Amino acid sequence: MNQTISPGARTGSVRIPASKSQAHRLLICAALGKAPVTVRCDGLNADILATATCLRALGANIAEQNGALHVEPIKAVPDGLCVLPCGESGSTLRFLLPVVGALGADAVFLREGRLPERPLEPLLSELVRGGMMFRSEGGKLFCSGKLAPGEYTLPGNISSQYISALLFALPRLAGNSALTITGARESEGYIAMTENALAQSGVRLFKTDSGYDIPGGQTYALPAAVKVEGDYSSAAFFLCMGALSRAGITVSGLRADSAQGDRAVLDILRAMGACVEEAAAGITVRRGTLHGAVIDAAPVPDLIPALCALAAAAEGETTEDGSASTTLTATAMLRLSGWRPYQLQCVADAFSTRFETTLTPQTLATESLLCALDETTVLRGSGPLPDAGAHILACFASFGPVSLTRQEGRAFLAARAVVSAFAENTLGEMECYEKALDYALPLPADLPPDTDAYPECWLSVQDLQCASAGGALDVSLTVRTEGAVLARQTASLVGAVELGDPLAPADPEVSLRICYAQPGEELFAIARRYHVSPGQMLAANDLPDGTARLDEARRLLVPGV
């Protein structure tokens, strides 16, 4: 089918489908409650249905009828292994991991597409510390164990879903818990949505300076009927389209008091000069006198495509009277760095019980994450000005390469910052003055001293102040450091195995062979020496499965070939 799209402003009205982010949250709260709840949802997608299917597997009775999900809460977790098909929904998987632990269920999460590749740390580590156990087999993630109340800690700058997941689970535990959130918090709007859903359920959370205090033994009690509000992320495209139309576009299905972070699109549109009207029938956006604005898109990354399209369409042009219309400029900067842990299964040694073997070694180079960086440092310095009466007009800073140094057994990130200040001297001439500042950021004290470590990070200017006083240039520079410190490792492995001549047959006159092993000897090396398998050595000597090294001297029976 061929379609022709013509340029020009659009007008009309549109009803926005339900927010899947809120739908996940309301369904979970309904399933953990005591009384049936009807969740009305305009538009059920695969992710929402995945959450509903998983909650059914945990014991909830959920029926779909006329765009609504009727939820009868979990009364008891089914016996045996609960099979939870998540599809490709990361929200379903992450939200339900601690919920399964709170219920004390044995479960296997079925992950499709690229979902097995999506990170789950440090959430899994905290859940293991809280009493859960996990085992991954391809797209299957098995979990068991009962989550215990206590103190939990998560970084705030990795995923808000980890924080939301624990907020769903911890109030249901028998005892009180505390959740500490370290570092800067990203996507706080999504955490606010979780807080809102829990508040609707009557669940109490007490905010602290470091996170939350969470009473245990709470009962979830949503109203008998709740409605999932419209999705501001989807609505942003139509709202931005309305900003290019004199007649405007009306979007219905959105809540004006929504906790969704992407509701910020309304404030951004107002800041750009668009006309935004909020009424009971919906939100109407019309073209106004568009102008440039500085937009921090870090809390609302889903708005970037729509805002970029709006910015591109609002480029300035010259009017008939020779004046220039306002130019709208939006700049978005996105830095992404990711580390995903791998468990590598490699062959370090090999032999045959029947043939001579020749091994070809291979060197494997790997990297590992030593520590993540998200720090702010203030540098200050002062230096003489050639012209004591110079007036500072503007300044900027640049950074040299970042290196890893060690001083008195402690590791530091080091770099040179150069501040350039443009000034007008007493003769009315422009001059540039420079001041170099040494940057040093101490790294965690437990960083291994003999590790081949290197930084992969970037420095940015958070704040820069330059002043001239008393014939000196005074500089205050606030530097933000983001990234990580990585470690390089190498290991010698078996790259290929070549089988040679058959081994000589065992002497039929020898009925018994005994090896006098020493403490610390490896069972594999002993087995290789006599051309028998390690499993045969374990069985012949009644050694526990998994024994790799002998703790004490002993006699070992060597089975015949």
Report what the structure shows.
It is built from 11 helices and 25 strands. It has 561 residues and is of the alpha+beta class. The protein has 4 domains: 19-227, Enolpyruvate transferase domain (UDP-n-acetylglucosamine1-carboxyvinyl-transferase, Chain); 233-313, Alpha-beta prism (UDP-n-acetylglucosamine1-carboxyvinyl-transferase, Chain); 365-490, no CATH class; 504-558, Membrane-bound Lytic Murein Transglycosylase D, Chain A (Roll), CATH 3.10.350. A 4-stranded mixed beta sheet has the order 1-14-16-15, covered by helices on one side. Strands 3-4-2-13 form a 4-stranded mixed beta sheet, with helices on one face. A 4-stranded mixed beta sheet has the order 5-6-8-7. Helix 2 (46-57) packs parallel to helix 3 (90-103).
Brief characterization of the structure:
The protein has 561 residues and is α+β, with helices and mostly antiparallel strands.
Q: How many structural domains can be distinguished in the coordinates?
A: 4
Strand arrangement in the largest pleated sheet:
1-14-16-15
CATH architecture label of the largest domain:
Alpha-beta prism
- What is the overall number of helices? 11
What is the distance, rounded to the nearest whole angstrom, between the alpha carbons of the first and last residues? 72 Å
Secondary structure: helix percent? 10-25%
Look at the structure and give the CATH class of the largest domain. Alpha Beta
| Uncertain runs | 315-333
